[in-house]
């Protein structure tokens, strides 16, 4: 079990690691942009076409980094609110594999319980958040991401109204 101080230290380490990765990616994107501009300025048609393709890569990369960081911050916001409200899924008593993941049968049972909860109130962001977590525990990452996006959107609507 972690104490409040060590949990804060872990968060700082993760944030620092992400910041370093973003800086490294930024440097990489700048290098790609420089190479692209050199290719575009070469005057050779083939090099200019390749340069245009290389120039697009940093923009796509920046978009991916921004979208990922924004989603992570949104998810953390929801997780914090759920903890504060005492509504986070309690998986502490569920059986686990040696890897630490929840046993499949227990995860499926947890999912079925949370799905019934969601069917009763699909427009509550809290229930959508819990369903997304249950999907994740059950190993369905695609549906977990879709449902978490829905939870984020519903929570934003609640905050704005």
Written description of the protein model:
With 161 residues, the chain is mostly helical. Helix content is 80%, strand content 0%. Helix 2 crosses helix 5, helix 3 (104-120) runs antiparallel to helix 4 (125-138) and helix 4 (125-138) runs antiparallel to helix 5. The longest helix has 41 residues, at 45-85. It is elongated, with a radius of gyration of 21 Å. The protein starts with a helix and ends with a helix.
At a glance:
This protein is 80% helix and 0% strand.
Sequence of secondary-structure elements: HHHHH
Query: What's the mean pLDDT score?
Result: 89
Structural class of the secondary structure composition? mainly alpha
Strand content: under 5%
Total strands: the figure is 0
Radius of gyration: 21 Å
Sum up the overall morphology in one term. elongated
- Count of discrete alpha- or pi-helical segments spanning 4 or more residues: 5
Low-pLDDT parts are none
> Span between N and C termini?
38 Å
Strand count, sense and closure of the main sheet? none
Q: What level of helicity do the residues show?
A: over 70%
List keywords for this structure.
single chain, 161 residues, mainly alpha
Helix and strand topology:
Layout: H1 4-40, H2 45-85, H3 104-120, H4 125-138, H5 141-160
Helix pairs in contact: 1-2, 2-5, 3-4, 4-5
